[in-house]
Specification:
single chain; alpha/beta; 5-stranded mixed β-sheet; 9 strands; globular
């Protein structure tokens, strides 16, 4: 209330004697409307001092809210129980085994991505992301572009993308592309001076453009890759765009599995004669299977790592653990060593 009560204070409210300023009885104004459940709690302008019964009701409510707010978050798949003492009711809920955000992306973004891109392009973009390249994806359709960008978040699991991620970058902010950090960015069209360039002439024309400008150093280095998803073109300063990064290792089984699901998705979507903006249960089932295949594939990398750590216990209170990449690379096939070597240099 506006005045200070003379009774005991409870979280900013006057106590049970119902007195207002200078010990005078509190009188409600005509405009004050009180809830029927706990009369005396909230009015039109302020919180009122409560009687003992009213405070008891309010206190039980606050206690219940406090207990619910501090309820531990269960593990994925765990059943959580809660009892509301104030009402004498209890309820239970089970935490999803998949994060809601990832579940939504898998259900609604992946069908669009798999309908738009072939496995070859998805593997290529995943390699670029994992090796921390500066990646720009271009598509005129904002819905398709945002779906494709978001799709790579769950496809990387159990890894988590930690660099700059911008779903749609406006053309007027294209100078952000010169940032010297890894990123994954979507744009609705190619920024200047990248418009109209053919991949074969990109390197020479970019160098010529910046040699004639105030800043002769091109911001597009060897780690910059722009992919025009509609034209299926790759613009990069690298001599061979497909050699910017090594291919994903150990991917024969993954390609076989993913290609089968892709074929089913494509046939089913063509059968519906519509873009999968509103995916059906069949779409979601197939995309969940593809997502799980990628997760198992990347998890197999992690499961092999513990056998290649060396721990020094010279100081027992502060043991030192060191990863030995040489022993890991020695067990890999020759064609896979290049990727893992670059992966360890960027991630470990």
């Amino acid at each position: 209330s506006e005045g200070e009560g003379t009774g005991e204070r409870h979280g900013g409210l006057s106590g049970g004697n119902g007195e207002g300023e200078e010990g005078q009885p509190y009188r409600r104004s005509e405009g004050d409307v009180l809830p029927s459940a706990c009369a005396g709690i909230r009015t039109r302008k302020s919180l009122l001092p409560l009687s003992q019964a009213e405070y008891s009701c309010f206190s039980d409510l606050l206690t219940t809210l406090y207990r619910y707010y501090h309820l531990p978050i269960g593990a994925p798949g765990q059943l959580v129980h809660f009892f509301a003492k104030s009402s004498g009711t209890s309820f239970s809920f089970r935490r999803s085994t998949v994060d809601d955000e990832h579940d939504g992306i898998i259900s609604f973004s992946l069908p669009i991505t798999f309908y738009t891109l072939s496995p070859k392009w998805i593997f290529y973009i995943l390699s670029l992301i994992l090796l921390e390249k500066r990646v720009v994806l271009v598509h005129r359709n904002i819905r398709i572009l945002s779906s494709i960008l978001l799709s790579f978040i769950p496809l990387l699991r159990p890894f988590s993308y930690q660099s700059v991620f911008i779903t749609i970058l406006p053309l007027k902010m294209a100078e952000f592309l010169s940032a010297p950090v890894p990123y994954l960015i979507g744009m609705l069209s190619r920024p200047d001076p990248l418009r109209g360039y053919h991949p074969r002439s990109f390197r020479s024309r970019i160098r010529k453009h910046f040699s004639q400008s105030e800043n002769p150093v091109t911001p597009y280095g060897e780690d910059f890759v722009l992919i025009d998803l509609e034209r299926e073109e790759v613009l990069t300063m690298h001599e061979n765009p497909w050699n910017v990064v090594p291919p994903l290792p150990r991917n024969d089984a993954l390609q076989s599995c993913v290609s089968r699901y892709f074929q089913e998705l494509l046939e089913y979507t063509v059968e519906l004669q519509s873009y999968p903006y509103q995916p059906s249960p069949r779409h979601r089932s197939l995309t969940q299977a593809v997502s799980l295949s990628f997760e198992k594939y990347f998890a197999s990398w992690v499961s092999d790592l513990p056998g290649h750590f060396v721990r020094d216990f010279s100081i027992k209170s502060e043991p030192i653990t060191v990863f030995v990449p040489e022993t890991f690379l020695a067990q890999e096939a020759g064609e896979d060593q290049a990727f893992f070597d670059a992966f360890f240099n960027t991630q470990i």
